[in-house]
Amino acid sequence: MDTKKGHRERLRKRFLNAGIKGFLDYEVVELLLTLATPRKDCREIAREAIHRFKTLRGVISAPKEELMKIKGIGPNNYFGIKLVKEAADLFLKQKIIKKDMLRSSIDVFNYLYYSMRDLKKELFKVIFLDGQNNIIEIEDIFEGTLTSSVIYPREIIKSAIKYNSAGLIFVHNHPSGNPNPSEDDKNITKQMVSACKLMDIRVLDHIIIGDNKYYSFADDEQIE
Description:
Elements: H1 3-18, H2 25-34, H3 43-53, H4 56-61, H5 64-67, H6 75-97, H7 105-116, E1 123-129, E2 135-143, H8 153-162, E3 167-173, H9 183-198, E4 202-209, E5 214-216
Parallel strand pairs: 3-4
Antiparallel strand pairs: 1-2, 1-3, 4-5
């Protein structure tokens, strides 16, 4: 029996029987690579990917050009990895939209963390809510260095009116990993809360995502 083929079959059977729990990062990468490379042993390629990008998270979030520098990883492999990542993000989005989580900062963090934790720039998002606090839509508003001069309340309120939104949750990331709010973050929050009050739109929270942790203005009683 081909030992390489036997290894792959054992790996797949192990996954089907017990799920991903207990797998090493390189084994998960190996499984992902086999989806687009059915006849080639992917074990050493997976090990090289983990060596270069350190973790499964690093591999899945790696830019296409960097990932494909590894011999044995081609466009089809990258497509498979990106598809799995995007499908997981979509699953989490749909799951969180269906649940009553809008007053729970940890639920918002758990969803958005996976799509925002590896961003190299700050990204400011707005979650638009209806009168029953159900999510209507999530929009990316701004990407770059966040200051009070680059966030325009008028544009956000315009979108809120378009969606007939009764409430908002603001979310942005700190690439440094430290979620503590800056003075600009505090000013933006005050500015947005004041502007939305004039239009009878509630601001429920402003959440800052860091490295496996977050800061919530609402939890810290900084939103009136």
